[in-house]
Structure formats: structure tokens, C-alpha cells
Amino acid sequence: MKYSEAITDSDCAIAQALAVLGDWWTLLILREVAGGRMKFNQLADELGLSRKVLTQRLNDLVANGVLERRQYSERPARFEYQLTDNGRGLLPVLIALQDWGARFVLGDGTLSATTAESSTEARRILSLVGRRIPEMTLVAAQGRALDPVASPEWTVLYCFAAARGPGDGRYPPGWDTIPGARGCTLESKTFRDQLPEFHQRGVAIHGVSTQRPDELADFAASERLGFPLLSDQYLQLTSALRLPTFRADGVDRMKRLTLIVDDRRIIRSVIYPIADPAASVSEALYRLDELRHVAA
């Protein structure tokens, strides 16, 4: 029986949603599946949940159309769990919970586009080193679907809150008062100006934001960036890595950070927090040289 059949408050969408998602283990399962841990044993190991309880929660999520079960091995028969379209629709819910927890539970309630170097958030993001970015595509200019990780090159994946082209209007009200929000245009232009140095090292540059693809395309064209800007407006990458966000003007926006990724999709270095957007570009070059020297 689906959870929703047992809820008497049938006219309230909140009540009906909580009938499916009210168990906190359910949300943590969705967090892990969004991050690429889709096999039963991976989920059991990561969550520390009993196999009986995990089986029940997974069955409930499949029954409610949030996850689908796909066979990946015939002998023995083994399955993995993937988000359905309904499940992907819950990614903003996960990010909203993360943002609320970071700001009001772990933080002091201040709206910020960055964090302190000693913060819990900073430690968590720096611990992404060694994590593999799941297979995915994001939308670039003209609707092209691009992998955020280049192959076979190294990739510098820099995440930013917002950038505006000439016809896109102003930034949200109060933007300049949000710590860490300013500097997105400067950062992108600095990557543009130093692009030959990255190319000489066999490195691709990809910028990522939760802005719409058309907004990013207009900005990239106006600044003649020479590398793609990818839209994570549906929070696919953000949810997979649990990247830090803040909410401004009704939009979940990425906090500024840089990931250096190898051709196996493994994150090899993280720059976060970033106090100086322009200097972070030189820092990325320095770290790349160190990584390439070790690999040589």
C-alpha cells in the first residue's frame, strides 16, 4: 500500500508529500542515490541502516514512483536504484534542507555566499577530494548537453553564483551586501585571460551555475569566454556532490568554489572558500602543476 492511501488529509499537498518522505531515512537514501550510490550494499554501508529497514524504505520509494529498480547483473540477479523524473523533482527539496541546515542549524542565520575556513561546511567540501563525479550531462549554450568533466583532459570546474550579460538586467536586490556574492564576472574573465596557460597543460575549463542556459550563453558571448558555461538549474551536480548553496531572489545559487578533476572523474583538489576570485585562478594553475608533477 502506498503511504498516501493512509493519510486522511487528502487535500493538503504537504501532508501527502510527507506521507512519502516523512521518514528521515528516506531523505538520506535519496541523498545517497543522487550522489551516485545506487547499489543496495553501497547504501547500507554508507547509511549504517539495517538491511531489513533499508529494503522496506527502498520498496516504498519504488512503489511511490520516486525510485526505479534496474537490473545490472543477471547471474546473480542484482539491481540498482535510480531516481525517476518524480525523484529528480525532489532534488530542490534536498538542497533547500541542506541550505536551511547550514544557515540556521550549523550557522548563525546569516545569508552568505561563502563560509569561514574553519566551518563545518568548508571541511565537508574539502573532503570531496577523492570523490568521483557521477556520470551526467548539463545544458550549455544552444541547448547542448555536455558532460561537466572533459575527457581525456584534466578539468577545472569552477562554480559561481550568477553572472549577467548586457541584456540580462541587474543582479538581485541587495546582491552587493551578501558576503562572497560579488566577483563572478571577474572570476570568469580571469579564467578567459589565462585560458592559454590552462590549454598548454591539457586542461579544460568549465564554468557551472544554477542560472538558466540562455542567461549563461548571453554572458559567455558578451565576454568572449572561449569555454563553456553549464547550467545546473535542476541541481543535478549540486545534489550529487552536495555543493554549498545560498538562496537569493528565489533561486538556489552555488557558492563560489573550484574543483580540479582528472580524466577518471575523480576530484583531485578543491579550492573553498574563495576570498579572492581572481587569485583563485592562479591557485588552480599552481595546484594543477603540483598534481601533474606527481602524476609524471
Characterise this structure:
This protein folds into two domains: 3-88, Orthogonal Bundle (Arc Repressor Mutant, subunit A), CATH 1.10.10; 109-295, Glutaredoxin (3-Layer(aba) Sandwich), CATH 3.40.30.10. The mean pLDDT is 92. The chain is built from twelve helices and eleven strands. Helix 8 (184-193) crosses helix 12 (277-295). By secondary structure, it is of the alpha+beta class.
Spell out the blueprint of helices and strands.
Layout: H1 13-21, H2 24-34, H3 40-47, H4 51-63, E1 67-73, E2 78-83, H5 85-88, H6 91-105, H7 120-126, E3 138-139, E4 145-146, E5 154-159, H8 184-193, H9 195-200, E6 203-209, H10 213-223, E7 229-231, H11 236-241, E8 245-248, E9 251-254, E10 257-261, E11 267-271, H12 277-295
Parallel strand pairs: 5-6, 6-7
Antiparallel strand pairs: 1-2, 3-4, 5-10, 8-9, 10-11
